[in-house]
Amino acid sequence: MEQTAAAKHSAAYRERQAEIKAKMGIEVLKIEAPASVRSGINTAMAEHGYSQVQELWQDLALSFLSMPYEEQARRLRKPDAPAFVVSQKLARQYESKAQAELRADPGDEIIQSTLSP
Description:
Blueprint: H1 5-24, H2 35-48, H3 53-66, H4 69-76, H5 88-104
Region (Disordered): 96-117
């Protein structure tokens, strides 16, 4: 099936734009993030006067890259695993929900063996 004139024109336009971006060294960087991150980004954009998320990401990237190596490393450092602690309250909530699920759908219980190894 042959393309319409409008479709050919659009394809040619996209091709020209891709060539221009390639000459300028621009590439698409897709980022997947949880919805909560996007809502936080939207809030930050409004508070700091950004109207386009692309502008914010570019400024963040350029700001990060302009930092000394030590500062980049400090900001990228993740907390150690032991920093995450399960509180007594969270443990009780988990136990309560687990028991409720077992009552709703019995048969998945772990039964301790009475036999000695």
